[in-house]
Amino acid sequence: MAKSGLPRKTKEQKERARNLLEDLYKHYPNPHCELDHENPFQLLIATILSAQCTDVRVNKVTPALFEAYPTPEAMAEASPEDLEELVRTTGFYKNKAKALKEASTTIVEEFEGEVPQTMAELLTLRGAARKTANVVLGNAFNKNIGVVVDTHVKRLSNRFGLTREKKNTDKIEKHLMALFPQESWTDLSHLMIHHGRNACKARISAPPDHPICIKYGKKCECWKMRGQK
Asked: Catalytic residue among 9, 96, 101, 131, which?
């Protein structure tokens, strides 16, 4: 491990990663968070709701939710039943409603009604694990503290040979942090998610046909699984 606590990467590995990043930017020149939000509180709530749910579904739910409870103070006072009804279609609605109420209460009582801006403080909020904290820090506060690792990022990280870790998202995140410049970490997640949704999908039915997959995936499992050499 390097002194920073990240895995050691060779010069060649880092150069390959930077080339991949440049190519992703060429194909997806406007990387952005697809959760609709107007402020850090809305982004936090939307990200909590996005667990095991699509961004499209969350964006359909949050307008009514934020109209009814626009601030941490208002949401902290909301009845569990009202919150459950408003977020029902996002799945696991009882747990999510409880997380929204308790996270809002903590923001009011511990952080003077403002969404905290550090990883350690965000992790004290119910429903906010490291992935959620990275989303909020990177997109609401422009702080590149880590890399969001969702199912798309996990899948592409393996297919592009950026890591051999297949399950542990913390380890995958560290490998990506060691490979890519820190200022790119937030964009990197968006770029890989866009590519995963639009081109390099989970279902494998044909040889890779996207230029990025062809260029960077030849030594990775997606090619082997598709019968390529």
From this structure: 131
